[in-house]
Amino acid sequence: MTITVFGLGFVGLTTSLGFAEYGHTVYGIEMNPERLSTIQRGQLPFLEPGLDEALNRHLGKRFHPIGIDSSNSQQSFADIIRQSDCIYYCVGTPYGTDGQADLSHLFGAIDQTLAAHRSTLTSHFSLLTYQVLVVKSTIPPSTTSQKIIPYLQAKGINVGKDLGVANNPEFLREGHCWDDFIHADRIVLGVSDQHSADILRKLYSTASAPIHCVSLNTGEFIKYLSNTLLATLISYSNEMSLVADTIGGIDVATAFRILHEDKRWGGATMSSYVYPGCGYGGYCLPKDTNALYAVANSAGFDAQILKNVIKTNDDMPAHIAQKVARAVGADKQRVIGILGLSFKPGSDDVRDTPAAKIVSHLRMLGYTHIIAYDPVANEEFKRYYGSLAIDYVDSYATIITQADVFVITTAWPQFADIRQLTEKPVVDCRYMLTAPPEGEE
Asked: Which residues are catalytic?
């Protein structure tokens, strides 16, 4: 099959290379010229284990990254679009100040798709074969049925006859994207017609994971159901750590580790979420929790748990900053060393990272001597948060020497030995340094 994928970020590039691994021909459309050039050179624009080998395996063979104005092997962008069996949309759907998902990039990509089909001698919409437009970007429940399909119909397209529309939510963890795609635990297809379902089943015919064909709204909802549960578990854990701090005399790390021994967890790995930290970060959990709360609220239901999940995590960096201030003391000239800038270890993603919010709160408290080190994310953090005006060091050893107080904001394994390297104060925001009691595993 021939697939076109709009957007070559974490999700889009993984999806493109995953379909290439399945044996399909994939054209990846990327609007950012710098990112496109990086990928065309066979390099990843972000850190993602395993994806680099897949890129080298398929680049120029089954996977062809191009720009909107590019051509490939004498084929124009319009030719590629018209000859594709499926068009996948993996563009950003960020949330705005009101929490609602911003769909402008998605509708822009859909418009480009339609323009390609109409770029023949006539303005009539026509397809060489039945084609399915598939949204892989995370979109709130009812978006496909109540916004995308009416949008297409308003342009004279008979959905279900001229073409199919579906959603195929992703369940990729940054740092594990390739493994999560190739060894997926489930594949969800939100569809409204049998023809689209058959085409998408064929697309995934070599995948070993169970395939679930559900309604359009159900497909969208499952992704939010997953991410808001994880966000709630993280928020619950953070709130319990604050309760423990308030009461005092509680070993938070030990309490949570013992909680994980509960047989009702059934050996699951959810313990990485039911554990306190600095609040959730990254792209998916904040975006999806805000978006689902906003869509429920606009429908007339004020979802209190989701509202408080958002508030707890929004408030967490300020609590952490106060905790750091107590450790630093009144001397505002002491140098604070931030250990970790990405939102989680194994990734260079700094979007909505708690570290930036904690630094911002520390500066508001009057602490201006702040230095930072992350094994992979220094440059990304500097690019996103240059206005914070902090200093960066290029090694763990350097920050150990230069800082007076340390704040662990990302649980990189290499920070686990810090108490052996220095007797300076350490604020362990990730509770990663507390070893189990002697004699326990």
From this structure: 284
